[in-house]
Every structure is written in structure tokens, then in C-alpha cells.
Amino acid sequence: IGCDCITYYDRLIPCLKSHPQLLSLRATFAPKAVAGLDFVEALPTTLMALGFVAFEGPEPLKALLQRCPLEHLWFAATARFGPGMVAALQAEGRQLRTLSVPS
What we know:
Order of helices and strands: HEHEHEHE
Helix content: 25-40%
Radius of gyration: 13 Å
Number of strands: 4
Distance between the termini: 31 Å
Shape: globular
């Protein structure tokens, strides 16, 4: 395709639907791209590791942590990480073994 990063998280939804047993996903998205509920709802419930993600807010993060047996979560360097995200991780992130947050 000749691109360095994926423009929108939604572009991966067809791929996610065709790999229902996927265990991990790491991709590079455009700096302004954010993952919404539609992306989270398309993720396989088998997902254990997700790398370099930026959420549009705390709700998609909460939904992800409730939906998947995620053990490893790495936020994108460009991700917004405010009090709402911290609250979501405190409420739903007990199963996480590794966590990387933006600096």
C-alpha cells in the first residue's frame, strides 16, 4: 500500500473479523487516530495483547477490558491519558500484567 501508518482504526475491522482467534495485535496508526467502541467490539474475545493504541475516551477502554482477557496493553505515544483513563484501568484492569502509558 505504501503507507507508514494506518489512518483509522476502523480499517482493521474486516481483518479482525476474519481472525476470530487472534491473540495479539500491534499496529502503527496515524497520530490523530483513536479507537472507538466499533473497533473494540470488533476485537476477538481471545485477544491477550494490544499494542500502540489510543482510545477516544474511557468508555472504549472499559469495554475492551471487559470484553477481552487482555494481559498486555501498550498505549500509543500520542494517546491522551487523563483521569478518566486512570479510572477505567482501576475499575477494569486488574488482569493486566504489563501496561505502558504515554509519557
